[in-house]
Structure formats: C-alpha cells, structure tokens
Amino acid sequence: MIITTFSELTIDGKLSLGTGRSSKDLFAFYGPELGRWFHQQRAAHDAIMVGAGTVRADNPQLTVRNAPGKSPLRVIPLGMTSLPRESTILNDGLRTLLIVPSHHPQTYDNPETETITCGTTAVDLRELMQILSRRGIESLMVEGGSRLLHSFFRENLVDRIVIKHIPVLSGDPSAPNYLQGAKMALSEWQVDTWHCIGGVCVATYVRKRSEETAVAA
Ligand SMILES: NC(=O)c1ccc[n+]([C@@H]2O[C@H](COP(=O)([O-])OP(=O)(O)OC[C@H]3O[C@@H](n4cnc5c(N)ncnc54)[C@H](OP(=O)(O)O)[C@@H]3O)[C@@H](O)[C@H]2O)c1
C-alpha cells in the first residue's frame, strides 16, 4: 500500500490558525483551483484517513465534491475519547470505517458505519495497514491532524509527503504543529515536485535513495 500524507501548512509550520480552530480557516487563503486539485487527489486514492481529533475540531466530510470521481473510503482511528454523535461522517449516509481500540468507551451503530477493533488504548497503525491491505486498499491518503501524522512518521509508514504551503502566518505558538513532537530525519527526504496551484506552492517529498541519504549524513 502507498501511504501519502497531505497537509496544509502555514508559513510558521502550523496546521491551523490557532488552538481549537478548524483547519478549514485556511481555505480562505486559496482559490477554487487548488480545491479542485485537492479533490482530484482524493478521488485518486482508495481510502482517506484523519484522526479523531480532526473529526472533533473540523467536522469534515472527507468526500470528493469539487472534481469528478468517487469518494475514497473514510477511515477514522479513534482513541479513548468518543466522537460526537452528530459528526457529519456518521450521519451523511456514506461509508465510514471506524477503527477503535479495545478500551474505547462507546459503540457506533449507524447503518453506514463499520467498526473494527485494533490496538488497546490507541490504534495499532501497523496492524491497521495490514487490515486495510487485506481489504484491497492500495493507496491511503492521510490528512492529519498533528498526532496522527506523528504516529505515522514514528512508525516509519509514510511513502510520500504532500504539503500545501499556505502563504499566511498563524502567529499562534500553541496552534497545532505539523508533527506533534515527532522527530523526522529531514536528510531522508527530498523534494520530488514543486509547483504553484492558484498562488499556493504544493511540494511533494519522497524518500531519498539510500546512497543519497548516506552522502547527506
Ligand atoms: N492543515 C491540515 O492539513 C490539517 C489536516 C487535518 C487536521 N488539521 C488540524 O489538526 C488538528 C487536530 O489534530 P490532533 O492532533 O488534535 O488530532 P488528530 O491527529 O486528528 O487525531 C488524534 C487522535 O486520533 C486518535 N488515535 C487513535 N489511534 C491513534 C494513533 N495510533 N496515533 C495517533 N492518534 C490516534 C486519538 O484519539 P483520542 O483523542 O480519542 O484518544 C488521538 O488523540 C485540528 O486543529 C485540525 O484542524 C489540519
């Protein structure tokens, strides 16, 4: 399975404009062209994932709306906190796969929602990737947020990084960082493509080949 993280980052490396703010605020800083491109990327993936924190903060739809194509399967890893019952992904009639650790306190019985248990207090992402592969998922788009990205990088599961560099400063030091405390060896990654869409630079980073990493180290 190819795993790609997609993030919108402010110039000061934040995922939103402030604590508790929705990352949807960042949409105001770019036009429909980038929105269309982003939905094309969604349509090109089998599954899309955000963490429970993003569902609580942003109440996203995680569907393809601004481009032709099918919406990917929504996969949401939960921890020890319940999701609001009114969350859009639980009520819009589209399929959602909830991944709950065995100690998760709540059950979800919406007709379009399937629940799988994986891990004890947080989802075991390596095991989850095997489960998704067995279900035929070959491409996964991970949109965040901060703690989920941290876990993916910690587990060394990421193949490609896509970052939309939004030309705005958050200015709030407590706004969520790109990686919540994660260490990432930058020498392992290099820019693959860098282009502007509707005034926003979109960069794709891939792992360096091993001989290039050796030179950089
Ligand atoms: N700019 C962007 O591209 C972008 C994209 C998405 C989100 N965001 C922003 O990111 C912020 C949310 O980030 P966040 O860090 O609070 O939440 P998050 O990363 O979306 O979700 C983290 C939560 O997922 C659950 N989880 C289960 N297994 C996990 C595992 N193995 N590793 C990590 N998490 C696991 C836990 O839920 P419990 O809390 O229940 O334990 C954990 O707290 C919001 O401000 C949102 O707007 C920005």
CATH class: Alpha Beta
Give the overall pLDDT as a whole number: 92
By CATH's scheme, which homologous superfamily applies? Answer: Dihydrofolate Reductase, subunit A
How far apart are the first and last residues' alpha carbons, in Å? 28 Å
* Helical coverage, percent range: 10-25%
Low-pLDDT stretches: none
Overall domain count: 1
How many individual β-strands? Answer: 9
Structure description:
With 217 residues, this protein is of the alpha/beta class. The protein has one domain: 3-Layer(aba) Sandwich (Dihydrofolate Reductase, subunit A), CATH 3.40.430. Helices cover 23% and strands 26% of the residues. The protein has six helices and nine strands. It has helices spanning 32-43, 52-58, 88-91, 125-134, 146-154, 210-216; strands at 2-9, 47-50, 73-77, 96-100, 113-117, 139-144, 160-165, 189-197, 200-207. It has a nine-stranded mixed sheet with strand order 5-4-3-2-6-1-7-9-8. Strand 3 (73-77), helix 3 (88-91) and strand 4 (96-100) form a beta-alpha-beta unit. It is globular, with a radius of gyration of 17 Å. The protein starts with a strand and ends with a helix. The mean pLDDT is 92. The chain binds NADP nicotinamide-adenine-dinucleotide phosphate.
